[in-house]
Every structure is written in structure tokens, then in C-alpha cells.
Amino acid sequence: MTGKPLASDTAMILAAGLGKRMRPLTAHQPKPLVRVAGRSLIDHALDKLEGAGIDHAVVNVHYLADALEGHFKARTRAPQVVVSDEREKLLETGGGLVKAAPLLPDPFFCLNSDNIWLDGPNDVFSELSQAWDPERMDALLLLVPHPRAMNYRGDGDFHLDPEGRVTRRKRGYVAPFIYTGIQLVSHRLLRDAPEGPFSTNLLWTRAIEEGRLYGISHMGLWFEVGDPGAIKPTEEWLTRA
């Protein structure tokens, strides 16, 4: 892809959740180690980073953290993984970002550890980098329209205005875009954050009010793999791809 280089060489992978919706598969293993199409979920994410040329990953850990750390040590491929340890206290998505911030450049990519997607004409990290404007944006979300969101059965999350600014779905209505769990984040988003556990939604709300939360539409397919029932259809899609 021609144009701007990648906006960052580092990604934060959120992998500290309890994986309750994936039970019973997570009774004795963390959700990021659940296998889909022969690869663990975390390896699907790390492989995408490697393919995009992202050299560094910061991964937060909490539930069955030793298993995840052992997995990282056994992996010999890029990216280089640094652990943000949340064993003592689960900090949720926003708190996890704040704790890891000293390990992260400005800006940085962020993705959920259970993400599986197929790229469109360009990889998603290049797509986000091309659209990134630090003068206007605190965060840039990768969103996907309903027809390209496999296994998804919800009402959507966001609207996009003609300039790409994000607003939330109103209660009782359907929104055209679903958040993929992938974003490009400025440290400005994390300023004056509360201490302890909190959701990134708190920071997004402020960015929306300030007109600094933006999004782009993913041109490929995205798979929601939130429970055991989603694994088989996802594997079937990936086999056909």
C-alpha cells in the first residue's frame, strides 16, 4: 500500500478478561488460548501484527496469566511481547490501557485478543494509519457494517458522520456499524483517567463530546467469537476464504 507509513510499531492486546462467555472452554485455560481453525485466538492476533510489520506487542494478563506468559515464551516469531501484569487486580479495558501506557508509544494500536478478521484490499493497520490525523483525533476505531460482521446478532454500536466522527447508537434503535475491537489510540485519550478499573467507554464518551472520536469502515470480514457456538461457523468461513 502506498501512502503514509504505519502510525505505530506497537500494539496493545487486551487479554486479561475472565472469558466467562466462552465457558466451559475457559474453565482451565484463558480465552486467548482457545483454538479456532488450528490456532489460538492470541496467535491469530499476533500473526496479524507480524504480517503488518508491527514489531512490538504489549499484552495485559490476569486470568490464568502463567499459561499466557508460557505461551509467549514458546513463540519464536514476531512481534516481541511485553506483558502488562494485572494478576493482583483486573483493571478492565480502560484501566488496562492506563497501566500499560508507560510501555506504549504515542500513538499505539489496540486490539482485543479474541479478534479474528479477514483484511480487505489492505491490512487494517495500514487502513487506520492512512486515516489517522493526530491533530483531530484522540482515537480512531475500526468499525464494520452488519453485512460483514459474521456471527454478530446485536443492534450495532455506532454511527459515522460524513467526516468520520463517531456517535453512539441510541437506545431502542439500530446503528449501522459494529466496533471490531481494533483501534488506533493517542495518549491524549488517556489523560486525567480515573484510577483503578474502568471501561474505555468512559474515555470514548469524552472524546465524542469533544468531537475527537473517529472511525473508519473495515472493508473485509470480521468474526465475533464470543462463545463456543461461534467457533465452528467461524472455522467454516475461514475454510472458504
Number of β-strand runs: 14
Number of distinct helices = 6
Give the tally of structural domains.
1
Q: What's the architecture in CATH terms? A: Alpha-Beta Complex
CATH class descriptor name: Alpha Beta
Oligomer: single chain
How much is the radius of gyration in Å? 17 Å
CATH topology call: Spore Coat Polysaccharide Biosynthesis Protein SpsA, Chain A
Query: Average pLDDT, to the nearest integer?
Result: 95
Order of H and E elements: EEEHEHEHEEHEEEEEHEEH
Task: Determine the fraction of residues in helical runs and give it as a percent range.
Answer: 10-25%
* Morphology: globular
**Main sheet: which strands, in order across?**
5-4-1-6-12-8-13
Helix/strand class: alpha/beta
Low-confidence stretches are none
Question: Could you describe the 3D structure shown?
Answer:
- The structure is a single chain.
- The protein has helices at 41-52, 65-74, 92-100, 124-131, 200-209, 231-240; strands at 10-14, 35-36, 39-40, 56-61, 80-85, 108-112, 116-118, 139-145, 149-150, 158-160, 166-168, 177-185, 213-217, 221-223.
- The protein is of the alpha/beta class.
- The protein has one domain (10-240): Alpha-Beta Complex (Spore Coat Polysaccharide Biosynthesis Protein SpsA, Chain A), CATH 3.90.550.10.
- Strands 5-4-1-6-12-8-13 form a 7-stranded mixed sheet, sandwiched between helices. Strands 7-14-9 form a 3-stranded mixed sheet.
- Helix 2 links the parallel strand 4 and strand 5 (80-85).
- Helix 3 (92-100) crosses helix 5.
- The longest helix has 12 residues, at 41-52.
- The mean pLDDT is 95.
